[in-house]
Amino acid sequence: MDLLPGYMVSEKQCQKVCKLKKSLYGLKQSPRVWFGRFTMSMRAFGYRQSNSDHTLFLKKQHGKINTLIVYVDDMVVTGNDLEERKALQNYLSREFEMKDLGYLKYFLGIEVSRSSEGIFLTQRKYALDLLQETGMSGCQPVNTPIEEAHTRPDLAYALSVVSQYMHNPGEQHMNAVMRILRYLKNALGKRILFAKNVNHQSIEVYTNADWAGTMDDRRSTSGYFTFVGGNLVTWKSKKQNVVTRSNTEAEFRGMVLGLCETLWLRLLLQDLGYLSRQPIRLFCDNKVACDIAHNPVQHDRTKHVEVDRFFIKEKLDDKIVELPKIRSKINWPISSPKQQSQVEYSQNF
């Protein structure tokens, strides 16, 4: 680091810098040093770092499991081994200065509540703080984040659209952001439910694509929703990196994106002790894309996507994934094509 202000040195020493013997808070190396220190402590206490998520630590003994997940210096500890959980809390209190906040209620802007149905997740407080900070607390709420003529009522897709213009925003982009905030006010009560007593071996993913939907560069947008035991766990809406020549190609690339996510979820569940013997169910409403995945013969029109084709074909042959048929009307919405009503969208949540 540079010499501190007011530190007097001779002219010969003015080009010197200070050598840090200990990482200081606020430097870019600090997070890595802190996480390395924390990882060493967890391993010393008998915990194993997950290969699927390096912020997840697990300990299995006597048929029970205890887990800890960390984000910077915020931690969540859970498991069915009460004695181990208390021992871990005592150990961490000795190693680090920490505070036990009790049962999980609020974490990284997410509010957690429990009921007889299961666990509810919501970001009501985060959304209210955002509206207050932007001066939109008294705005008129709307039912969709972006005009229905252009897109679906999907917040992930709406945010992915406006974020593409952060480097050079205009008035129309600011208006779009204001509309998203107005939608947030209308959707404060929406929550995600993680139901109890589900089959954790059941993994499903719904994929969809908007072919050439971006007017600026005619790239497509693909997305997915993944479910474990019927519970929605991850979702994504992302503009594709290349221009696709057909709707089938756009859908096919979206299938690969969703499949990669479910393969990661499968490994994560295995770390937690849920060894899935059921194939992943990948839903795509494009029949031609599904036929290409099953077809062992490569044609000229698909040779430029052969890596994706061989990737899906390999998983199909190994019985890791299956492609059940689904109608467009009941497939999950990603963006603008195959318009779906607001009523249907609300029922999905």
From TrEMBL:
Instruction: List the source organism.
Output: Vitis vinifera
Taxonomically, the superkingdom here is Eukaryota
Q: Gene that codes for this?
A: RE1_1903
In this chain the Reverse transcriptase Ty1/copia-type domain maps to 9-147
What is this protein identified as?
A: Retrovirus-related Pol polyprotein from transposon RE1
